[in-house]
Amino acid sequence: xxxxxxxxxxxxxxxxxxxxxxxxxxxxxxxxxxxxxxxxxxxxxxxxxxxxxxxxxxxxxxxxxxxxxxxxxxxxxxxxxxxxxxxxxxxxxxxxxxxxxxxxxxxxxxxxxxxxxxxxxxxxxxxxxxxxxxxxxxxxxxxxxxxxxxxxxxxxxxxxxxxxxxxxxxxxxxxxxxxxxxxxxxxxxxxxxxxxxxxxxxxxxxxxxxxxxxxxxxxxxxxxxxxxxxxxxxxxxxxxxxxxxxxxxxxxxxxxxxxxxxxxxxxxxxxxxxxxxxxxxxxxxxxxxxxxxxxxxxxxxxxxxxxxxxxxxxxxxxxxxxxxxxxxxxxxxxxxxxxxxxxxxxxxxxxxxxxxx
Length: 357
Prior knowledge:
By secondary structure, the chain is of the alpha+beta class. Helix content is 52%, strand content 14%. The protein is built from nine helices and seven strands, in the order βββααββββααααααα. The chain has a seven-stranded mixed β-sheet with strand order 2-1-3-7-6-5-4. Helix 1 packs antiparallel against helix 2 (85-92) and helix 5 runs parallel beside helix 8 (245-310). The two termini are 46 Å apart.
């Protein structure tokens, strides 16, 4: 299962080269919000070049690009806002490790946003550029996952975005990205509960496959979210002038959420490992139960086989002193059956008394 795809250039390609993943181009949607303390303007742009009109304004601008950005769109954004070529290359080549990179007058951030539909885990790369009065967010999803933030900005009594810098908008987006892991972990928790019930009632190969799949998904999620915690730690402690001290308090809260997520991940991984041990113990116990039943059956039939084997030799020569007189008895046959039944009953009573049955 591919949790996220990573695209590489051919060896020897120059750094900062923007190469499309495929010839098929899907249109991207560009949603722009330009706001000050007194107004908020929302527009949808046909291309990245249309952002040029908002560069000269004394306002704060949020540019949201949804869909797989093509090299042309990235070049236009790079030319308008002076984005570094290496950063644009990381945007195009998704599957990057969450990180924070500092440039002269801007920050470049890569974050990981997990989604889970009950069957498939998907990790989406969110790329953010933040400058003095602008924030560019690029998300390869066609649907905009940041609509809740946009709704908060539209509220007339919500003054936090209007009165604070662009770094507060960065916090709001990263907070949504971070908290998106909680519903995923909630789904994993439900799966663990169901697997635990199946293990206790009817352990089978299907349950084992589910445990291995869940452990693999937890490992992938941890590998992505662990560096994201380091990213939030860096934002919480950075001295870059783009991140104000009064906003770092909010990043600290976002970092706390990330720590909770990592702790939940670790506990779920331990639970999955314990469930695997329980499964192996259950299978071993079932095997032991089967072997015990087979051993009891074999033990019962050993004396019966001996009796049947002795009297099945049919030495009936009347002239030999070593003949078997029991073969000529009138009640010989029922007596053998009686002995065999008595042996069976005695062994069953003995096994029952010792607690082996």
